[in-house]
Amino acid sequence: xxxxxxxxxxxxxxxxxxxxxxxxxxxxxxxxxxxxxxxxxxxxxxxxxxxxxxxxxxxxxxxxxxxxxxxxxxxxxxxxxxxxxxxxxxxxxxxxxxxxxxxxxxxxxxxxxxxxxxxxxxxxxxxxxxxxxxxxxxxxxxxxxxxxxxxxxxxxxxxxxxxxxxxxxxxxxxxxxxxxxxxxxxxxxxxxxxxxxxxxxxxxxxxxxxxxxxxxxxxxxxxxxxxxxxxxxxxxxxxxxxxxxxxxxxxxxxxxxxxxxxxxxxxxxxxxxxxxxxxxxxxxxxxxxxxxxxxxxxxxxxxxxxxxxxxxxxxxxxxxxxxxxxxxxxxxxxxxxxxxxxxxxxxxxxxxxxxxxxxxxxxxxxxxxxx
Length: 371
Description:
Oligomer: single chain
Strand content: 35-45%
Helix content: under 10%
Radius of gyration: 23 Å
Largest sheet: 8 strands, antiparallel
């Protein structure tokens, strides 16, 4: 586990103007990966020992934390995050909390997966952030209750050991655990506030579930699909195209900058495993004056195989879900969509089923990750 760069200490008191002007952040090497704690995937903060000043659910809001200097409630300053009351010692002779005193929150990941990095964001918590944080993870099947997770026989793996953090900062941590997890326990020592939690990694689906489904979306995030690369991420991330549900607004899809050359834009995906694709949806919902003009779809089997076109260059309409039934199943592990010349799509759906080889490899990977 590493945390580079590392922020510690208070931020300056808010002095007016843009509250993010003095926010401390950095480019972390894992933030291109899916957020396993995304509410759209089904993530939730299912319990916390204290949320006196601000609710635990704020941790997983998708948008950046907001700050209103004039907003107060009957308990005090209202913050856009999770904030606990100040801890105290046992009495006048021992007024300070002990080294072991801490607050905690239990987070259910939206999709089980391998955690590659975390961001514990203390935006706007300038003098009321925790002195340090630690994060643990476990894998428990089904839909365990908070009591189930806190039972003494549950094994927790440390992802982030107790580490000092900074106020009004994005505190990033690289994780090397290499296991499949379903839940996290976020600890703040001894108390304070955290604005947002991001858990970046790779979805590791349950092979038994996908086998029971038979036909499913082979590129969906929740089923283990992944964006490997894209030509342009100027306005919005390519990962949006395989997020759950239909797009609800323009920036909930993928949109590129305007091209001034004769090239085209593209996204390359890795499927859940080797599969046979039988039907395709290309959705341009909410992209009205900026939808891609045309699209082609190609597939290849293996990371170094040749690309085979399975959908020829086809005209796309704005704000429309386009459906295509392939004349014969397309076998592969990777898919590439090319759009012409630029613009965007909101979602890509690839319906089919795993091959026997794909199912075997997925099951072996599941076992390797401790699933």
